[in-house]
Fold this protein.
Amino acid sequence: MHVSTDPQVWIMALCTLAVYSYLYKENPFWRLAEYALVALYTSYSVAYYWHGYLIPRIKTYVIERHQYYYIVFGLLGLLYYCRYLPGKVQWLARYPIAVEVGWGLGAVIAVSPRSPMQQLADSMRPLKNVNDVIFFLLLLTAFMYFFFTVGKKSPVVSVGGKIGRLVLMVALGTAFGNTIQGRISLFLQRLSFLLADWLGIPIG
Amino acid sequence: MEKLENIDPRWVYLVMAILLTIPILKPVGLALGMDEGTKAVYNWVESLKPGDIVFGDVAYAGGSDAELSPQLSAWFYHCMKKGAKVVMVAQWNTGASLGYKVCQAAAEKAKKDGYSAEYGTDWVYVGWKAGGTTTWRQMQVDFWNACAETDHLGNKFSDLPLMQRVKQWTPDMPVMIFSAGSPGVPTYTNYFVGWPLYVGNVAVQAAEIVPLVRSGQVKGNLLGMTGAAQYEVLLWGGGPTVKKMDAQSLGHLWIIVLIVLGNIGYISKLRKKG
Amino acid sequence: MRREIPIILTIVFLLVRALFELIGPLYDFQITFPDGTKENLFTTISNAVVFMSVVALFMGMWNLTRNHVGNIRRKRENWPYSIWLLVLLYGYAILGIIEGMEGKHFDWIYNGVIVPLDSTTLSLLAFFIASAAYRAFRVRSLEAGLMMVVAFIIMMGNTSLGNAIWSQTSWLGGFKGIRDWLMNVPNAAGFRAINLGLFIGGYVAAVRVALGLERRYLGQD
Amino acid sequence: MSDLLLFLAAEAPKYKWGIFRDVKGCVFGFLVGIALFVLTYIMIQRARAGLKIPEIRHIPGLEAFEEAVGRATEMGRPVHITNYYEYMGDYDTFAFWSYLAHVAKLCAQYDTRIINTNSDYLTMVVNEEIIRQAYLEAGRPDAFNRDDVRFLSDWQFGYTMGVAGIVAREKPAAQFLIGYFYAEALIIAESGNLVGAVQVAATSATAQMPFFVAACDYTLIGEEYYAGAALLSKEPVIYGSVVAEDLMRVAFYALIIAGAILATLKVDALRNAVLF
């Protein structure tokens, strides 16, 4: 057993313990860690966008290649800050917001149907064996659960919908059961850091 | 008995921590089952001939290290063992360096065991390239141009013998993606139709990937830590991840015990109420 | 000015994006800049839109500063922590901008503090998933009971423990065999129904905005 | 030689019907989209004109919003609502805004504090505006506290830790988790449970649904999330869009049945049409 002498490993270990202390109770160590992470991540992304995006774009595209439309979009982006300025300029922030919303909407409207179409096509498989038939029936009932207006009074839809909800619960149960091992792996990773890297206990 | 219905969550947490720690220190070694998906991936690599080119894709970052790095490591070692040539790309920039370290360690291990695993001739780590799916699509047409002719370490493609054979990413070069989310599998199901696709999954995704396996879009998949452990069993008969599976078993057992306790408490409360 | 221009901007950018995604020749259209570099027109425009939102990178810092300076000034509960936050916020941002992403100190703090805090927070899930399962899986109703049984079988099928109790080679393929069936049939059917439904619902939500029935993003006055 | 190879590789791109991109489902998906536009428009026009449109079934969990805010008022504790990280142009965000407006209005009427945490500073700008507007409509603009609209770092777990801390300290009596979530979902929901909050979740994230069902008191799953958003806005015209959704669902339903029968008879035409 050789406890680590690296100060960075010690800080890492203390950070790890501070987070786990939340499981007992909200406490000053946790609070220090929490405020630290909120601050550091915000600053990290400022530095990340600054060096990884903003400056390279300005250098290569605006200065070297003279693509001046970036300046137009840059000025538009600056309007976001109007939101926090005093006085009557706050509404100016709507311009970049509108561009952003339009751009996102365009993608939703053009691209989002593609993957569902593949799912839809795959649902039309030949019913060759028992499992295919069961899959087909379960899919239809599960689909019925999401009928909000059609066949509100029809007993077929209401019974089908009820069975459908059970099918959904089976699907959710499957996802839940599967996820557990992934989540436990996450703790095992931290645990092997604490035991092997920090305390120097040989594991396994 | 009714107290069992409301155990303080802190006890739940404490027992969980203890139960996971013990088997890490002293593994028991319970036997594993075997998934069809794992066998499919293993048999595929087993069928590779020396000199075949395969692609690997690192589409995960630190958060999924515990699940996907062991998979990557075992798969990569297996490829080196069979003499296949591996080109690694990375869809996540945050995980590119991590993936490189894993591959490098696996290559070292393969070398130690007497297999050829030279960087540049047996494998190349191309790493992350900006531009998303557009870039990936261009790789099919002109791999060199799409990657700006440099690998993760900054080497020129022209200095790497293996890259002379990879001017284009053609459908005879299958891909194995280690995926933790988005971007990930859809890049290949949408743009690489016809390329054999294998997936290393995080457990969370396992349920969602099934429809793709059903439709044949995915040829084989590894499921989280279990998948890695199964692969290690097939490859080496055991390994570091296999040891961790005991802790998994105990963790699952504790959750099952909790569910049983909770129900006993619930039922006895119902009885009391009459 | 206040409402009309934003609405026009939304519609213009909506159409531009949608047409680029749908129409092949447009998507493949290349432009040549005066200096000879070639670029996909679509890439050019999307880069510019991303650039626009990146320019707002200080908004988050601004909001944090405003809130926490307020905390300190009014001496709200836990105000000393706000000082801690502000010092780290500005200290690390300035360090990052001066030193760059690969800087020695910047990287040391990233690996020593951010990475462990981040992955430990994620690993809290190992505990929370246990307490959530404990509370939720009661035989309260048919639904909860069913979900419980399914989760149980999956858990057993995934671990070596389950394999030891009811092995893969025995009747029905053991826990693993049943798990595989559950994954491949009811689970796939359920998720497919959810996905197809989500597509319709989400698309109509987008249509409502595109048709101008939902204008909250523009504010009211 | 290599130049020749490159030349051969860069053959002319293929298009469907001469113009559409050669991507699976591109054309059929586009037609489905157009159909949804038309259906929505017609149904809304019908609703506006006061023509009869079908009634919508009860969605369990929707009434929980008022109940939960009421409980928070009684206990004198705040309400917390969040959507994690949704960028501005996403439909999940549009749906979230309906919920936010509804909850903020309830809080303004009941004089209960509302805390909104954010991970995207651009969406936050709009969120703040919506809450301010709700207070204005309730006639109490002075009660709006902009410090309660908080930004907590744009990286997943910085945000998560921040929310967990706020929940533990402020002890909200009601927590609404609405929108698209990732792994942080269960951490936030369980933090809420530790302080005994009533929790309502509505999500379109398939991977997180099981955890919300397990950890929250009420959960709107799948499409109920979008339908709920329409119902909460309480405008009759919006009802029309739910009807449109349903009609398209029936069409999908018919397609699946017809396609499966045809496929069993070894006719793949319908299937190929969908993938076109």
In short: The radius of gyration of chain A is 28 Å. The longest helix of chain A spans residues 155-198. The mean pLDDT of chain A is 89. Residues 35 and 133 of chain A are 55 Å apart (CA to CA).
